[in-house]
Specification:
Blueprint: H1 3-9, H2 19-36, H3 40-49, H4 54-63
């Protein structure tokens, strides 16, 4: 899953989600971000910039490996 899709999957303000789903997303997102040693603000800026640091991407991939929505470095580039 690329960064934009990963952020969308963890969007707390998405219409139509229940409070329980919002809390589940918040807990999962916060745990992954803490383990990856980054912040949601940095990830939003990286999405807008169109680039994410390789070290941050590696940490995010390792941290999200066992979640429902794993981030993958290989998904960052469009298929040829």
């Amino acid at each position: 899953m690329n960064l934009e899709d990963w952020l969308k999957a963890h969007d707390l303000n998405e219409k139509g989600i229940t409070p329980t789903e919002r809390e589940r997303r918040r807990q999962e997102r916060d745990a992954v971000i803490a383990e990856a040693q980054t912040s949601i603000r940095y990830l939003h800026v990286a999405k807008c910039r169109g680039t994410i640091g390789m070290e941050t991407a590696k940490r995010l991939q390792a941290a999200s490996k066992k979640t429902k929505t794993p981030f993958r470095i290989a998904d960052q580039w469009p298929a040829d």
